[in-house]
Amino acid sequence: MAINQRRLLTVSERGAIMKILALDSSGLVASVALAEDDNLIAEYTIQYKKTHSQTLLPMLEEIRDMVELDLSSVDAIAVAAGPGSFTGLRIGSATAKGLAFAMEKPIVPVPTLEGLAYQMYGTNAVVCPIMDARRSQVYTGIYEFIDGEHGYDMRVIQEQCALSFDEIADSLNNIGRKVVFVGDGIPVFRERMAEVLQVPYTLAPAHRNRQSAACIAALGSVYYAQGKFVSGAEHIPEYLRLSQAEREREQELHKVIYRDMTPDDVPYISRLEQETFSMPWSADSFLEMIANENARYYVAQRDGQIIGGCGVLMAAGEGNITNVVVAPDARNQGVGTGMLTHLMEKGSSEGLTAYTLEVRVSNDAAIHLYEKLGFVSEGIRPGFYEKPTEDAMIFWKR
Q1: What are the CA-CA distances from residue 337 to residues 236, 269, 276, 310 (Å)?
Q2: d(CA 230, CA 99)
Q3: How confident is residue 240, by pLDDT bands cut at 50, 70 and 90?
Q4: CA triplet 102, 106, 109: central angle to 5 degrees?
C-alpha cells in the first residue's frame, strides 16, 4: 500500500487566535470541548450506557452554562468527521450542522484517526490508532511526530483506511519501528497483535486510549488556519465504507440467482464451455439435455448476465453431474458451490440419494470444490479425457 506523508502546522506557526467548539461522537465515547487561544477551557467526555443522541447536546449545554459561553463568540465548530460508528457520526454531523446553521459558523471536519493519533503528541514511536470496524476489520492509519522548530509536527505516514488487522500489521512491520496503539480496537485485536507484530509495541494508557474532543479542537484550529473548513450545508461524514444496510442492499442488487436453464441461455453456456474446456459440449447437446425429462440443467445469473451453468442426468435415484462451468470473472466467488448446492437440493426433492461426476486429475480447483461439498474420490478412469489425454477421477457423494 502506498505511503503518503503530509505535515500539519503547529499551533505556534499558525499565529491565529480563535475560539473553537469541538464534538466527537465517532465511537463509544461522547465528547465535547471548548478551546481558545491554545487553552482548553472545558471538556466533557463520557462513555457509559447512553446513546449519543441522549448525551451530546446536554453535554454541550453544560459546558455553555459552566463557562458562560456566548455561542456567537465561537469562530468554528470542529467535528470528528469519520470514520467510525455510522450512527455516532450521523449524530455528531447533524449536531455540528445544526449549530453551524444557527450560529452561521463554518465546520472544520477532522479525520477521526488523526484526532486519536494526536493523543500521543510528542512520542518518538509510530502511532497506530485502531477502531473496531467489525467484519474482522479496523479503521486505522499510521502517524509519527517530528521534533520541529516550533514543537512537534504530526506527519501522516498512511492515510486513514479500513483494513484487516493483519494488513496494517504488515505495514507496521515494514516500517520497522516501535508502535503505540490507541483506540477501541485494542481489546478486540490484542491477542492478534502478539501473534503477527514483529516490532516492539505498547498500548496507550486509559486516559489517552479513546476519542477526545480536546484533540479534535486542537487539530480543528490547525485545519481552520489552513483554510480547511466547509459550510454547514457542505459537510458530510467520511464513512470509508458502506453501512450494513447499504452493503445488504448492494448485495441484494448484485445477488446471484440460480434457475432452470432455457434454450435462450444455451448460446451463453455453450460459449463458456468453449472458453473453458478443450472438449466442450455443443449447443445442440445442451438443447437435447434440456428437452430430456430425466435431465435437469441450471444457470447462475447475476445482474442479468449468465455466469455459470451445470446439469445432472437422473437414473434409478442417482444423479450423474455432467457439466459444471463458471465464467472466468466469476470464479472463486462461491458460484460453483452455489450452483451445485442448488442442483443437489432440487435433486433431493426428486428422490436422488447419490451423485457422481468425473474430473481431470490435474483440475485442483474443481477437486477442491467437490471435496468441500462432500464428494469422495472412489476410482480412476485411465485416459478418459482427450486434448490432452488425461485420467479422470471418479467422485461420489452418497
Answers
A1: 40, 17, 17, 11
A2: 13
A3: confident
A4: 120
Q: What is the pLDDT of residues 158-191, one digit of tens each?
A: 999 999 999 999 999 999 999 999 999 999 999 9
Give yes or no for a contact between 196 and 169, defined as CB atoms under 8 angstroms apart.
yes
358 part of the active site = yes
Active site residue 48: no
Kindly state the DSSP code that residue 290 receives in the 8-state scheme. Answer: H
In 167-317 the beta strands, taken as DSSP E runs, fall at: 179-182, 201-203, 256-260, 295-302, 305-315
**What are the pLDDT digits (tens) for 321-373?**
999 999 998 888 889 999 999 999 999 999 999 999 999 999 998 999 999 99
Q: How far apart are CA 188 and CA 133, in angstroms?
A: 10
Which of 143, 224, 370, 385 is flagged as catalytic?
370
**Marked catalytic residue, from 159, 167, 318, 358:** 358
Distances in Å between the Cα of 19 and the Cα atoms of 11, 73, 93, 123, 362 are 13, 7, 19, 27, 70
The upper half-sphere exposure of residue 212, i.e. CA atoms within 13 Å in the direction of its Cβ, equals 23
For residue 330, give the C-alpha cell. 466469476
Query: What mean pLDDT is reported for the chain?
Result: 90
Tally Cβ neighbours within 10 Å of residue 227: 7
Cell numbers representing residue 283 in the block: 449447443
Name the nearest CA neighbour of 210 among 327, 43, 355: 43
Chain-centre distance for alpha carbon 159: 15
> What is the four-CA torsion angle of 299, 300, 303, 305, rounded to 10 degrees?
-50
What is the maximal distance between C-alpha atoms in the chain? 90
pTM summary value:
0.61
